[in-house]
Amino acid sequence: MKKKHYILSIILFIALISGTYFFILKDYSLQEFISSVKNCNIEFIILSFLCMVLYSFFAALYNKRMLKHLNIKISWYQAFGYLFTEIFFSGITPSSIGGQPVEMMEMKKDGIDYQKNSIIILLNTILYKIATLLIATLGFTIYFNHILKQSKLFVYLFIFGYVSSVILVVFMLLLVYSKTLIPKILYFLVSVGSKIHIIKNKEAKIQKIDQAIKGYQDCARVTKNKPIILIESFTILLFQRLSLLSISYFVYRALGFNTLTIFELISFQACLTIACDFVPTPGGVAISEGLLSNINKFIYSSALATSAVILLRGISFYLYVLFCGIFYVFFHFIKRHKAIDIKKSNN
User: Fold this and answer.
1) Does the predicted model carry a pTM greater than 0.90?
2) Residue 175: pLDDT above 80?
């Protein structure tokens, strides 16, 4: 069933890409794009790709440092392998829900039990979200006049996305650091759901909640015993986020513009990320391109807005997801091949 689920996700992903770019490019010729690319400043394009390298480096560094704090040593190859696995499956599944479970399974195959890898994933999710919210909050505070001038759809999605992200972060922090409040609320909801026959197996659901809460409490215990973990992890993930968001600035410079500052472009991109997170499509496909097209008309001239969308999404998402998929195939195949060899030697 899982294979069928991922195959369907890939089909949906491809269909969304095809439909989105057909809509965006219906009045845009390939010749226009080629002409725009030829006139690009290649140095800034290289810097854009360098940002993706830094993004990957900080993410892999987070994996290595967190596991070291948990007394587990992994190679850079493993650290990048876990990252690229998560990126690929997050990119092809709605709301990026498929990446982390597969990443956890890959860690488990390397002997990292679910108790420890769930701490890494959980802390990553919380701190990465907080880093995005921090950048977006600062950017919106400084550039709110420009941001509010964008389409009503973008403004509404940003507001709803921002509120839902804050609620999610608060909820997760309460799950981690509150021993009684959230568990009581969840038990109450399960009890109500059971009485109105929405939940069939009350005991099984409570057991799952208890297991999940244990993972959150393990995370709380680790960070309380070593507070430096929070500071170090947040710093790494903040730089990771800034690396990705900076690509918009270098694409902007590559197309010959220099009026807006790097932080202004990062602010727009952070707000766009939050707006897209509110819409559950694989990798934000369709909604990202649609909103980018609107915003880019403000940032660039109308003639270069579409070229900017293709370059930005191509570098920061499509090419990266493709690379991660190729790496995952080799990473997974080599690991599986080694496992088969070990079984044969044991027999």
Assistant:
1) no
2) no
